[in-house]
Each structure stands twice: as C-alpha cells, then as structure tokens.
Amino acid sequence: xxxxxxxxxxxxxxxxxxxxxxxxxxxxxxxxxxxxxxxxxxxxxxxxxxxxxxxxxxxxxxxxxxxxxxxxxxxxxxxxxxxxxxxxxxxxxxxxxxxxxxxxxxxxxxxxxxxxxxxxxxxxxxxxxxxxxxxxxxxxxxxxxxxxxxxxxxxxxxxxxxxxxxxxxxxxxxxxxxxxxxxxxxxxxxxxxxxxxxxxxxxxxxxxxxxxxxxxxxxxxxxxxxxxxxxxxxxxxxxxxxxxxxxxxxxxxxxxxxxxxxxxxxxxxxxxxxxxxxxxxxxxxxxxxxxxxxxxxxxxxxxxxxxxxxxxxxxxxxxxxxxxxxxxxxxxxxxxxxxxxxxxxxxxxxxxxxxxxxxxxxxxxxxxxxxxxxxxxxxxxxxxxxxxxxxxxxxxxxxxxxxxxxxxxxxxxxxxxxxxxxxxxxxxxxxxxxxxxxxxxxxxxxxxxxxxxxxxxxxxxxxxxxxxxxxxxxxxxxxxxxxxxxxxxxxxxxxxxxxxx
Length: 501
Ligand SMILES: Nc1ncnc2c1ncn2[C@@H]1O[C@H](COP(=O)(O)OP(=O)(O)OP(=O)(O)O)[C@@H](O)[C@H]1O
Ligand SMILES: [Mg+2]
Fold this sequence. Notes:
six-stranded mixed beta sheet; Rossmann fold; binds magnesium ion; 20 strands; binds adenosine-5'-triphosphate; alpha/beta; 35% helix
C-alpha cells in the first residue's frame, strides 16, 4: 500500500488542567478528503494545530511523505506544503483582500522588492472567481462580513498550492450557496492530488464530500471509517457515545400577545422598510443568503448599528435604542454573529464573561451575593454543559463551541424579554445544538420572544414558529412552521430576491 501523505502516531498534548489529546493516531491518504468529527472540545483543532505547526511541543511522531517532521511554527509547515484555514479567523482587517491573500508570500514581488500590482491583482481576481465570487480584491477586509472573511481565508489557504490543506470548520459562517461552491472547489483540488482534512459539525457536508471519516471523543481517537461503510447514525453515536433521538424539540404553540414590533426600520444603503412583529413565546426565524442584511437588521434593533428611519415597540411602548445599553435596559439581548469580536473578552475568565452584562444585578449586592454569583454561574454552566476545568479559565482557551456557549450563558443568566440569536449554533456540536434548541424552546415557553438567524435553513425550519425571508435588505416573504421547505425558501429568494430585480 502507498505511504499516506501524513501519518500522526500516538500524539498526546496537554494544557494546564486539560488533556487535549491522548494517544491519537491519524492517517491522511494522498488525493483524498478526510472528515474529522467529534463534539466540542474533542481535540480536533488541537490535532490539526500540531500538524500545521502551531504547537511545536507534543508527544508522539508526525510523518510527512514518510519522513519524520517536527514543524517549529506555522510558517515552517506552510513552506513544507501544509496550509490551514483556522477555526477562528485570522486576518488583518486594515489590509485589502488582495494583500491578505498574498500576505507573507513572494508572489508579485520583484527581486528588488517592488510590488507588481497588476500581477497581484490579476492573480487574486482569478482565485476569487475560481470560487464563484465577485469580490473586488481592493476591498478592505474590515468592510466584509464574517462569511466573506471566511471565504477570503479559504482562498488564501487553497492558493498556496499546498499538498495538504486543513479546513477547520470552513463553512461555519457560510450559507448553502457558498458552501456548494466550496465543495466543488475541494473536489477539483482532490482531483489534482491534494489531500484535505475537513473538520465540520455539519455531517451532511462531511458525508457528501469525504472519502473517510475519523471520529474523536474526549481527546481520544474513537474510529476511522471509509465513507462507503459509514452510517450517519453510527457516526453520531461514536461522537456522543450514546444514542441520539430527535434533533428538534416538539414545539409548544406560542401566544398571541405582541411583544416586539418593528416598524419601517431603515438604514440607508443597508436595509429598507423592515416591519415585523414578534409574539410572546414565539421563535421567529430569519432566513436569507449571505449578505442579505439579516445581521444588519438585528444589529440595528439591538443598537449596535444606527438606523435612519423607523421605530421599535416593546410591549406596546416605543423604545428609543441608541446603543446596546438602551436595549439591555429595555430587556432585549443579543448574541452577535461574530463572537470573537463582539461576543466575549478572550483574556477574561468564563465567570466574568458570563456576569459581564449583569453588573446591574450583582453589583449592588456584591458583598452579600458573591456566592450567589458563583452559584448562578455554575448553574448556567451546567445547564449549557460548558466544558471547562473551572470557570476561572480564560475564554480564549476554550474550544470554539464552548466559547459560543459562554456567549449564550451571558444572556441566559439574566431575565430578558427578547433574545436575538445571530448564528448561535455556529461551530457547535450536535449534542450541544440539541441542547440549545431545547433551551430556546424552554425559554420561549416561559414567555420570552426569540429572534433566530441561521444560515442553515434546515435548522431555521426545525426550530421556528414562523420564518421571515430577507433578501437585499428587505423582508420578501413569510412562512409558517409546517408550511415551509428549504426549496420553498430558495424559490422565493430566486423569484422575488434582488437577483431578479
Ligand atoms: N490553548 C489552550 N489552552 C488551554 N486549553 C486548551 C487550549 N486549546 C484547547 N484547549 C482545550 O483542549 C481541549 C480540546 O480543544 P480543541 O480546540 O482541540 O477541541 P475541538 O475538537 O476543536 O472543539 P470544537 O468543535 O469546539 O472546535 C478542550 O478541552 C479545550 O478547552
Ligand atoms: Mg475546534
């Protein structure tokens, strides 16, 4: 049998208080796509960070083309032919798309160090078009949304002509359309002999594109199966270590009483004339494509962005929201799309992140209630099953999915009337997703109104009482639960969306 391009043998790695990897072995064949799956904190990213040079110290051996290697850093691995799209995006916001893609490379630079502008421009333009996108390479990264940044990171990694490309949750911010384009591009790369490691919590993607699947759980290797022999249910069971039942909870019917009303909300050039109402106990899904304006609308409602016209009413009273502080005071909370930027403070502990917006609740009773803080934090940690050695750990050290749960915990610890969730299950494993759907349901039954944005249409359909479809910054339609399919939403967008008109 041919030597695999990568062989990792008996890899172990610890962090203070955590065994992230225990005796894990992993083989990657040439010209293949290998899915790496497992629950949050299973050790997937850590294993791939070792392969891509981010961690130089570990136990065990790594072989590349049959030769033992020990990369000192990511640059070393990249030079050898291994590139990675990291889970947490890592770009320079002040630079253009073009400069980010070509960062640190000698492409389009003469021997004397001059930049060959045209060559750089043409090259990046071609790379962008190969993925079916229409970005202007001169756009600054800071002007892009999360999904667009993710696409740029992907372009950057696959433009290196690496023999091994690692993708750690590459589609977490992408909608179905961009995901499809990425899948096609990955198939091309595979044809060319590139070996790809594909980490994802979206099993349908893993099953549609991978040749092999490796499952990890609790820092250990659980098994590797060829796709022909893999059954989705079995893979899920290997991931969670138990049988899993229905993903979406049974929905309780929602009340009739209006809780939140948005009237003719506009922000010039971003979204226009958005009106909708949210009832008590209702989960209202918002569906749409990348760049449709979904996040922009809810950001304005929460006061993160301004709006130029329109009004917001809560329980029948108009509320003026100029900043998130106003929104929080009124009883509106939001889990933003970009958790690393707006969601948490990485260098602060889990506990302090969770109580951060609730200073008003705890501060006046601080001395009396310190134990109350610990108790509340511990309770919510358990409820959301946040995996962390203790709540004093810095959030930056948590796995991606657990970071997301901290952002949720921050709001669920206090009483809110309206909870806006923008992609709350991004990068979260199936067990935790189920848990979040269950919690959303529970909070809705208790009278909360929830606005839920997700790029996974199946998920929006699964959890919402009602779905608004947004395109080109406008609400273009509405569906009731039980009366909607993925196709129906797509059709509406094609028919009424901006692409046509
Ligand atoms: N730099 C670090 N310092 C301390 N602990 C860490 C660090 N990086 C990872 N860990 C811990 O190691 C374990 C494995 O984390 P890892 O990020 O590899 O998980 P993962 O499988 O990628 O999870 P996810 O699906 O949530 O991204 C987790 O318990 C995590 O909290
Ligand atoms: Mg990870």
